[in-house]
Amino acid sequence: MVQEWKTARKEIEDILRLNERTAITITDGIQVQHKLRIQHAIRSLAFSSSLTKGQNNDLCVAHYGTASANHFGVWKIGLAVKYVRLTTHYVISRLICVRRLKRRMFVGYCNDLSLRVFDTRLEELSACEVSSTVLCFAYSNRMDELISGGMGCVHVWNFGLQSTGTCRDTPCTRLHAQFVVYFLT
Fold it and tell me: Which phi and psi (to 5°) does residue 7 adopt?
């Protein structure tokens, strides 16, 4: 249950009046943790949370740009926030983070009707064509499937075999259409 503002305000005023050196946290509702600023409209955004050796190692990836100038903005959120800007040739309207076998990858739907798989440095690992526009993504960790929703259809994708072995040995990056469900009206 969300605490009423009158009650929360009184508690904050009491803490400040007693001059206690305590961090004040409002435990109810959504709160801003970081402000990651960018001057262009964001086309797509993905976030990946990770804890490495007890240290926060989060990644926030945004695709933005105007006309033909397309960029990735990557914020590495650890002890400090670091920002990296990378140029790309694609317009990516949907982006999702996929975690496979302790490896993070990003899958993006591009305006050339393709799905592209990127590593955490946003280097392209693979690409495949899609038959329709992708409007949304979801990833099933349990089934290791990427589900994309489009105009009148749902595609279910899996990560196929690499030429060097099976997915059990190395995280595979190549997407294959497993099946498609069409909705007819």
Answer: -70, -45
Contact, 143 vs 94, CB < 8 A? no
Which portions of the chain are predicted below pLDDT 70?
1-2, 20-34, 51-55, 101, 160-185
Answering whether pTM is above 0.90, one says no
Structural element, H or E, at residue 6: helix 5-17
* CATH 2.130.10.10 intervals, the chain: 32-182
Using left for φ > 0, alpha for ψ between -120 and 50, and beta otherwise, residue 132 falls in: beta
- Cα separation, 11 vs 158, in Å, equals 52
Q: Determine whether 91 is exposed, middle or buried from the number of CB atoms within 10 Å of its CB (0-12, 13-18, 19+).
A: middle
- Using alpha carbons, list the distances in angstroms from residue 134 to 19, 147, 148, 172: 54, 10, 6, 22
Fold type of domain 32-182: Methylamine Dehydrogenase; Chain H (2.130.10)
